[in-house]
Amino acid sequence: MDRFIPVRIFGDKQGDIFKKHLVTWTPTITIRDGEDREHYRFTGFLSPDELCARILLEGAKTALNLKNYESATNWLNEVIENYPGSFAVPEAIFYLGVAKFLPDHNPKPLKEGLGILKKEFPQSEWTLRAKPYELINL
Length: 138
Known about the structure:
The chain is mostly helical. It has a domain at 46-135: Alpha Horseshoe (Serine Threonine Protein Phosphatase 5, Tetratricopeptide repeat), CATH 1.25.40.10. The chain is 51% helix and 8% strand. The protein is built from 6 helices and 2 strands, in the order H-E-E-H-H-H-H-H. The chain has helices at 15-20, 48-65, 69-82, 89-101, 108-120, 125-130; strands spanning 28-32, 38-43. It has a two-stranded antiparallel ribbon with strand order 1-2. Helix 2 (48-65) packs parallel to helix 4. The protein is elongated and about 55 Å long.
């Protein structure tokens, strides 16, 4: 999975496809894989930068689900580097640790991610979610 294919369905053409995908409000953005499985959904408008960061983040999480750790790592780094002010960055840092951990189960990236989150985003929900990594002994 290395690209996205955007599909726009106009409100007056919604019919069965809106029912099939449980769309009740627009805009609804879903991230789906090649087998049409939904991995993420959000509803509402975002600024262009927030939208790009969010789509990259959710694409990375989809890559994680599909065990494509290299793509996930690349996309997460892109979120962090290219959209530093985005609300998606703390979550990207969290999942970057996960993406680096999963191939060989080395816990060091999890602990490193927690350190970055504590320093740069101490009040983030993602810092709280990473808190158990404090128990990791390296």
